[in-house]
Structures are given as structure tokens and as C-alpha cells.
Amino acid sequence: MDRLLPRRPTIDEAKLATTRHIMVHVQSHEGPVMKLYLWDQAATDFCKKFKSYENTPTVLLVTAVNTKRLGGNLALSSMSPTRVFMDYDVQPTIDYFAWLSSNPEIAKQVSAEVVTKRETMTISDIFSYMTLESAKDAFFECTATIDDVVHGSAWYYIACTGCHSKATKGANSLICTNPRCVKDTTAGVAQYRAKISVYDSSEQGFFVLLGDAGFQLTGRHASELVSSYFEANKDKGPDHEVPVPEALISIVGQTHKFCVKVTDHNFSGNTRAITVTKILPPETSSPTKGSVDNAIAATSMEAVQTGSEVCGPSKSRGDSADEESKRTFDGVDPEKVKAGKV
């Protein structure tokens, strides 16, 4: 028998209908804060019962749950026979609610930091998450060291100046590939899409730097670097692929805390390259190995919102790490993507 956190969350029913998944932070009497994952019918039942109460429910009884302990963290997950009860539903919840009401100081023992803290994952943890059947598009924080910049493929792409999606060459102009973009045609601007080799104490892998993440590491915009190259090599044609610049090579050996995103392409096994959306400020403490179970709850498009988003996407929206076809220059005239001298 567990009690809900003393703050009423908002349930996104539209998202619940799609994900069939809801996560709730709970704490047993004198126990730790845990993450309870409710799936399918259990999630639907929770939503209906929660909405039926005029005041925020404070007691939750869930039967037939599966318990796991990974990385020292306890997590609970519903199964097919799971049933959900709240404050006044059954005698056990009524009794617990009465006890809790007579001991109001208990509700003050839950720390908000425990609930809303950012999830830090190792590369190995992220790879493990990608193999889970329940995995959804997710953001993680991961501290890793850059081992190399991958050569032999484009480190940038040509983006729409409006939405930063992929731009392709049309008959007379560049065309944005994002159907929701208000720009039918665009001048085009070079954006980072550089693949780097990284490692930590657990594993080696590949990250792909997009947009602002590349600028945060190099201090130079991709458009500046591309323009500078063509200005210094005027004999190169528009189909020429600009080699990896020194600004990118210089980041090898650096250790950073990355905000990364995994998507359906990662789950399907099409690629293990992980997209970096931003570089986070350094911290004095070293990263700890996160629990895969904890990561599911904090990052899988939760229907119950218990805190702010862990880390949002980069302003560069056009490319993800798995779309190899978007690396090409598409024969764009380099004069159209020059952003000024460096």
C-alpha cells in the first residue's frame, strides 16, 4: 500500500490513450520514493478513479505488481491481473487514509528533488533501454569523453532557415522537407550533423551532434565553417563535400555532459548512433550508473507530469542520427549557404 505525492499531477488523457502507460511516484510507509508503472487497463483504471475524486487522492493500493531492483533502485510495474484502489475504495485504503490523516507530518517527508531530478544514464544503460519492448522516444543525460570525429561522411546538412528541417534542391530553389513549415522555399543554411565516437566507464558508442550542440562544443556555427572553406577553396564545385574542420577535430579528448535523445529508429535496431540535442553545464560530481527501470518512467512521454521536461530538443529539427540520406549536400550552390566571413 502506497501513498501518492501530496501534489496533484495533471493527466494527459490524449497521450494516455496513445501510450497506454502512466507513471506515478509513490512512497510506502517509512519506505523510499518509488516509480510505479501502470500499463494498459491498469493505467486506464487509475485515470478514471483519479478523476472521480474531487480532492487529490492520497492513498493508492495496487495489487499484483512486479518488483525489480536495478542499480539499487526499486521499481514497480503492473501486470494483467493488477487492480487499482484509492482513498475510499476498499477497507484497507480507508484504514490507511484514516491513519495518514491523523499523521499529516508524514506527507511532508517526500522531497521534490527525488521526484524531479534529472536522470543520468551511462552509455551502457542507454543501449539497454533501447532494447526494452516498452521503450519510447526519450531524453537522457550522459557524461562521456569524445574519442574521435568520424570522417568519410558529411558533418553538416543544408537546413531550412525557418524550421531547420532538411532542405532539398528543387528546380529553381531549395525546398523545405517539413510539411508543417510555413516556408515553401528557403535560402538554406548549413547546420551541424557530425558523428563522434564517445566512451565512458561502461561502453563505447557514437553520438551525432545536431545544430546548437555542435556550436556549443566548437564555438563556431556550421554555416561559418562551410562558408570559410569555400571562400578559401573557390575552385571547389557545389557538390564538393567539405572535410571535417579543425574546430570539430579540436574537441577530441574533451569530456562533457550530453543531453541525448533516442527514437524509434534506435529501438528497431536500425542504428545505435544516439542524437545529441544540447551540451549541459559541467558538474563537479561524477556520473552514477542509472537504473533502466527508472529511466522508463522519467523519459518515456509520461502521461503524469511530475516535473519539468528533463531536457528539450535542439533548435535544429531537420535531422536525426539515423537518417543517413540527409547528410548529403544535394548539389546546393555553396554561395547560397554562406553566412559571412570568419
- Strand/helix succession: EEHEEHEEEEHHHEEEEEEEHHHEHEHE
Q: What count of domains describes the coordinates?
A: 2
Work out the number of β strands.
18
Report the major sheet.
7 strands, mixed
Helices and strands: which structural class? alpha+beta
Question: Residue-averaged pLDDT, rounded?
Answer: 76
Per DSSP, what share of the residues sits in E-state strands of 2 or more residues? 25-35%
**What's the alpha carbon Rg, rounded to whole Å?**
24 Å
The CATH class of the largest domain? Mainly Beta
Shape: elongated
Q: Helix tally?
A: 10
Pfam family, one: Rep_fac-A_C
InterPro entries: NA-bd_OB-fold (IPR012340), Rep_factor-A_C (IPR013955)
Protein name: (rape) hypothetical protein
Describe the protein in words:
By secondary structure, this protein is an alpha+beta fold. It folds into two domains: 2-116, OB fold (Dihydrolipoamide Acetyltransferase, E2P) (Beta Barrel), CATH 2.40.50; 123-337, Beta Barrel (OB fold (Dihydrolipoamide Acetyltransferase, E2P)). It is 23% helix and 29% strand. It has helices spanning 13-19, 40-52, 91-101, 112-116, 123-130, 212-218, 222-232, 246-249, 264-267, 292-299; strands at residues 2-4, 10-11, 21-28, 33-39, 59-62, 65-70, 73-78, 84-86, 138-149, 156-159, 167-169, 174-176, 185-186, 189-199, 204-210, 255-262, 274-280, 304-305. The strands form four sheets. A seven-stranded mixed β-sheet has the order 6-7-4-3-1-5-8, with helices on both faces. Strands 9-14-15-17-16 form a five-stranded mixed barrel, surrounded by four helices. A three-stranded antiparallel β-sheet has the order 11-12-13, with no helix packed on it. Strand 3 (21-28) and strand 4 form a beta hairpin. Helix 1 (13-19) runs antiparallel to helix 2 (40-52) and helix 5 (123-130) crosses helix 10 (292-299). The protein is elongated. The protein starts with a strand and ends in a 37-residue tail after the last strand. This is (rape) hypothetical protein. Pfam families: Rep_fac-A_C. Residues 316-342 have a biased composition (Basic and acidic residues).
